[in-house]
Structures are given as C-alpha cells and as structure tokens.
Amino acid sequence: MNEKLKKNHSAPKGFTLIEMMIVIAVIGILMAMGFGYYQRAKAQALIKTCKKNMFTLEGAITQHSLNTNNENYSETISDSFINELVSAGYLKDPVKCPFGGTLKLENSSSNNIKERTIRCSIHGTRHEP
Ligand SMILES: [Zn+2]
Fold it and tell me: How do residues 35-94 score in pLDDT, each as one tens digit?
C-alpha cells in the first residue's frame, strides 16, 4: 500500500509538451541565426570571387595587350574573347561574375599610360568596397 502511494507521487519521467516546445523553439532560433550568418558569409565569399576574377582578367588583358601590341579592346567582354584568352593561355579558366553580373572593360589613360579596369554590373570595380 505504501509502495503504491510513493510511486504515484514520484516525479514524472520524460519531458512535458511545454519543455519540448521550448527546446524546439530554441533550436529553431539558433538554426535561423546560423543560416543568416551562413548566407552572409556565402555572399561575401562570392563578392570576393568576383573581385578576384576582375583582377585576373585585368592582368590577362594587360598581358595580351603587351604580347600582341593591341591597345584597343572592346568595352564589351564577350564569351568568345574570354575563351580566346583561355585558349591562348592568358587565363587558366573562363572568368565570370558568380552572381551573373556583366563584366565590362573601362579604358582610361593618365600620363600616357593606358589603364584598363573591369567593371561588374553588380559589384562595380575591384577597387570599390
Ligand atoms: Zn560581380
């Protein structure tokens, strides 16, 4: 008789529904925060990839210009021009904006030195933040 009473008043085993819901809510909040950080880090990495691609392409065009004595390049960077640079060995792989931005070539000259800058329609130039 005494044993039976003790059993009924002992602490319940397992978790209550409220406890489970709180745990699930906390996990959900942590996952949402983690996903936000992940998305931001991923976007930052892709922007850096675009800037790095601009730098690589500027170097490749400069090399091409020096080797071929070509000074005039079209503002529009076509896929065929990129492929030409790859097949001629100026680029290892075709470069493009990971966000699908259009790359354009800007020619400027200061003190008789031609400068070429790549501008991405989404990310601007590599010098811009
Ligand atoms: Zn871009």
Answer: 999 999 999 999 999 999 999 999 999 999 999 988 888 999 999 999 999 999 999 999
What is the whole-number distance in angstroms between the Cα of residue 122 and the centre of ligand 1? 5
Q: What is the DSSP string of 37-48?
A: HHHHHHHHHHHH
Return the closest-CA partner of residue 118 out of 50, 71, 72, 49: 50
Sequence-distant (6+) residues with CB within 8 A of 94 are 79, 82, 83, 86
Q: How far is the CA of 42 from the centre of ligand 1 (A)?
A: 14
Q: What pTM does this model have?
A: 0.73
